[in-house]
Description:
The protein has one domain (about 5-169): Vaccinia Virus protein VP39 (Rossmann fold), CATH 3.40.50. The chain contains five helices and seven strands. About 25% of the residues lie in helices and about 30% in strands. The longest helix is centred in the N-terminal third of the chain and has 10 residues, at about 5-15. InterPro entries: DNA_methylase_N6_adenine_CS, Euk-Arch_PrmC-MTase, SAM-dependent_MTases_sf.
Amino acid sequence: MYVPAEDTLFLVECAKHYRGTWALEIGIGSGAVAQSLLANFTNVVGTDIDLASLGYCRGKCMMLVCCDAASALCGKFDLVVTNPPYLPGDPRVDTTIHGGPAGMETTIRFIESALPLLSEKEGRMLAIVSSLADSATLDKFVREKRLKKKVVAEKALFYERLYAIELTF
């Protein structure tokens, strides 16, 4: 299970600006982000492939689903959030921090999984990305899917910058 760190708290702060009926967190980890979403959303769903994370989050007033990204879900969400493993590196070494050779492979897989679930009119996806990852890979994906991307916040850490990006149709 990914222990909440500065990137988790950064996503919590960014997600506070959104409201709606349905919210989804992909890769729920400790549940810190999903739990914060309960303040502004009627229904919150969290997914993870790690049974220990889901067990840790049990009883925190959110719906939990064991699946890869959002692969087992249907319906529409007003907001999808994720703090995916975003550092370049082999995910087999540490699935909680390494997002693939470019650092974007897991992020793109999570986004692609969530796209059918976003409400077309006002659905938004919020994701954390790192300056250490290959942003050109994500930008190419965004263009191919005809998504709109904007940086809604950024945070400097001692060795990288984190960006909260919002994706919409």
